[in-house]
UniProtKB/TrEMBL annotation:
One annotated GO biological process: lipid modification
Protein name: Membrane bound O-acyltransferase domain containing 2a
Coarse class of the protein's main subcellular location: endoplasmic reticulum
Transmembrane stretches, start-end: 29-49, 61-81, 101-123, 236-254, 266-285, 381-399, 419-441, 447-468
Gene: MBOAT2A
Topology in the lipid bilayer: Multi-pass membrane protein
Chain segments carrying region Disordered: 473-508
Sorted UniProt keywords: Acyltransferase, Endoplasmic reticulum, Membrane, Transferase, Transmembrane, Transmembrane helix
Localization per record: Endoplasmic reticulum membrane
A GO term from the CC aspect: endoplasmic reticulum membrane
Superkingdom of origin organism: Eukaryota
Length: 508
């Protein structure tokens, strides 16, 4: 059976009449209502509590207070878990040695999240999708652990030991309790994120996130600094329109194309295989707008408050994508497994890269997928999805390194390659994500059995037949071959720069 939406609610029941009218669970109605309220508060926050008008202390205090109010409205007293998790982690930061603080903080924060997830899933409502309190805790976990590693980088390491992104994000002083709570639980991101770095958040609060222009008088002697602060109005309106479209699409299609129908016995036995593949793609296509809606609305809220400015485009228009969590067109037209993941839940991908992939000495790809599964929750389907994702990633990397160069001779051949890889990527993503939606082991294995585990076997065959050099080996070869290093230097620099260093586009 597919998971059904739970009717229980741990938060306020004030909006129960509206829930009955539109036939949606009250917890989801509370979530949307609180996000719309946060949007209005964001506009007020930007205008009336502007950094030029008030102190950072007031901005931190108000952002935290509003955040806790929204948490109480949505989750009731379960929102105390946010304080407990944050309090325990802050205690570790204060009392543990700086040398090991980041490790202890990571264990305590992630461990507390997993304990809450186990209790919610196996004690209260297994198999239920709801706006539960562990959702915000997942974002808080990202923020706390990111901050712990950034404090460790800034206060215990020399600059030569850090990558360019680590230097940019490093924190050189311990934040106060108010700054810490404001970063974790501010009203703009407490319900749906997205995750951001502590330095970027404090720059927003203090009003130092905008560019400074130097203007000289006619005589060329006096210099005046003018801070340029573009309006987020167009970006917010555009993202709200995207939210409306995504919400309409999701509400129109998700009941017509349930994912669990792909394991229906009569459908599997009677429908030809190509029709099963087509249905699975359409079902996943109908499911994604829910995430598009939630993440785009969260991004719009932050932008409305003035947070998210990321410089200017070539045409001079402001960019408001500093903490954006997805790029919809790049997802839907992704031509590789990695490209899909790079544009889906972007801030979580950055978090996984910073705290795991860049720091794990042994098999960082597998470790990153395992951490992602643990962070998402304790449903067995999550682990089946991420274990499958490891194989998919390795196979896609092998195909790209060994086969793609043969299709770069002409524009036509490259176009054909892109079309084929788009089809393969969409099928692979759907195949991989099915257990994530079905949650339980039985239905997930039933689906894979109906496909005869074909893509699992194909990935295994590809990784055994096609060689792929590790990134460490490629780096060693480039160090031994200076000419090759010069040829590929720009590409390496481009790949190593994070979005949080104001670099949006990445080499594929």
């Amino acid at each position: 059976m597919a998971p059904q939406t739970t009717a229980s609610c741990t938060g306020s029941t004030l909006l129960q009449p509206i829930s009955d009218i539109i036939n949606l669970p009250v917890d989801q109605v509370n979530f949307v209502a609180c996000q719309l309220f946060a949007l209005l508060m964001a506009v007020w926050f930007r205008i009336y509590l502007h950094p030029d008008k008030t102190s950072p202390f007031i901005r931190h205090f108000v952002a935290t207070l509003l955040g806790f109010y929204l948490a109480l409205f949505c989750f009731g007293w379960y929102s105390l878990h946010f304080l407990v998790q944050s309090g325990l982690s802050y205690g570790v930061m204060i009392f543990a040695s700086l040398e090991h603080m980041h490790k202890y903080c990571f264990i305590v924060t992630l461990g507390y999240l997993i304990c809450c997830q186990i209790t919610r899933v196996y004690v209260f409502d297994y198999g239920m999708y709801s706006a539960d309190f562990t959702g915000p805790m997942m974002v808080i976990t990202q923020k706390i652990t990111s901050m712990a590693f950034e404090i460790h980088d800034g206060m215990t390491k020399r600059e030569v030991q850090l990558t360019s992104s680590q230097k940019y994000l490093a924190i050189s002083r311990m934040p106060s309790l108010l700054e810490y709570l404001s970063y974790n639980c501010n009203f703009m991101g407490i319900l749906a994120g997205p995750t951001c770095s502590y330095k970027e958040y404090t720059a927003f609060i203090e009003g130092t996130s905008y560019q400074q222009l130097q203007l000289k008088n006619v005589d060329g002697k006096d210099v005046k600094l003018i801070k340029t602060e573009p309006s987020p109005k167009n970006a917010v309106i555009s993202k709200l329109c995207t939210c409306a479209i995504c919400l309409v699409i999701y509400l129109s299609l998700y009941k017509l194309l349930p994912v669990d129908y792909s394991i229906n016995d009569s459908f599997v036995s009677s429908a030809p295989f190509y029709l099963q593949v087509t249905y699975l793609y359409l079902a996943m296509l109908a499911l994604r707008p829910k995430y598009y809606f939630v993440w785009t609305l969260a991004d719009a809220i932050n932008n409305a408050a003035g947070f998210g400015f990321n410089g200017y485009n070539k045409d001079g228009s402001p960019r408001w994508d500093l903490i954006s969590n997805l790029r919809i067109l790049d997802i839907e037209f992704a031509t590789s497994f990695k490209l899909f993941l790079d544009n889906w839940n972007i801030q979580t991908a950055h978090w996984l890269k910073r705290v795991c992939y860049e720091r794990c000495p042994v098999n960082p790809t597998a470790a990153t997928f395992l951490l992602s599964a643990m962070w998402h929750g304790v449903y067995p389907g999550y682990y089946l999805t991420f274990v499958t994702g490891i194989g998919m990633t390795m196979a896609a990397r092998a195909v790209r390194h060994n086969i793609r160069p043969y299709f770069l001779a002409s524009d036509l051949s490259k176009f054909i390659y892109d079309v084929l890889t788009w089809v393969c990527t969409q099928v692979a993503i759907c195949y991989t994500v099915v257990p994530f939606v079905l949650l339980a082991v039985g239905p997930s294995l039933k689906f894979y059995s109906s496909w005869y585990f074909s893509l699992h076997l194909l990935c295994l065959l590809i990784t055994l037949v096609l060689p792929v050099k590790s990134k460490r080996r490629q780096t060693q070869e480039q160090q031994n071959d200076p000419q090759k290093d010069v040829t590929h230097g720009n590409q390496m620099d481009h790949n190593s720069t994070d979005n949080n260093c104001n670099q949006k586009d990445k080499a594929t």
